[in-house]
TrEMBL record:
This is 3-dehydroquinate dehydratase. Pfam families: DHquinase_II. PANTHER family: CATABOLIC 3-DEHYDROQUINASE. Catalyzes a trans-dehydration via an enolate intermediate. Belongs to the type-II 3-dehydroquinase family. The lineage of its organism: Bacteria, Pseudomonadati, Pseudomonadota, Betaproteobacteria, Burkholderiales.
Length: 145
């Protein structure tokens, strides 16, 4: 099985970016941990971060060609703005889980709406970096069914 983790804008700054909101764990730490968990369960895991909407879309289109089975995505601020990201996820029809480090429902009004949530298999938010690990475990369980 093959799982792709997609990280949207500004997530490359994790660790130093508003640590009270997003925690002190870096993106590299998160990806390393996910890689270990996937390896232990014989799952192929790739990660990708971009600050650019079009690059995220291109990567998701490529995932279809590559035969990726599942996507875990933190779309960052594009969660609240991007019809194009919704369209590509719907278009490739690869099941995906949406992850947010922070509790987007506890913050500004504009963060409460997601263009992706209603077409996601599930949404995890507010649990910090461990949210990705939970999403990965759920994805692996689903793929092994
Ligand atoms: C985020 C929440 C978004 O509202 C914000 O724009 C981010 C990160 C999170 O992980 O909590 O960049 O997706």
């Amino acid at each position: 099985a093959s799982i792709l983790v997609i990280q949207g804008p500004n997530l490359n700054l994790l660790g130093t970016r508003e640590p009270d909101v997003y925690g002190k764990t870096t993106l590299e730490d998160i990806h390393q941990k996910l890689g270990e968990l996937a390896k232990a369960q014989s799952v192929d895991l790739n990660t990708f971060q971009s600050n650019h909407e079009g690059e995220l879309i291109d990567r998701i289109q490529k995932a279809k060609q590559d035969g990726v089975d599942f996507i875990i995505i933190n779309p960052g601020a594009f969660t609240h703005t991007s019809v194009a990201l919704r369209d590509v996820l719907a278009g490739v029809a690869i099941p995906f889980t949406e992850v947010h480090l922070s509790n987007i429902h506890q913050r500004e009004e504009f963060r409460k709406h997601s263009y992706l949530s209603d077409i996601a298999t599930g949404v995890i938010c507010g649990l910090g970096a461990i949210g990705y690990e939970l999403a990965l475990q759920a994805a692996i369980t689903r793929l092994k069914k």
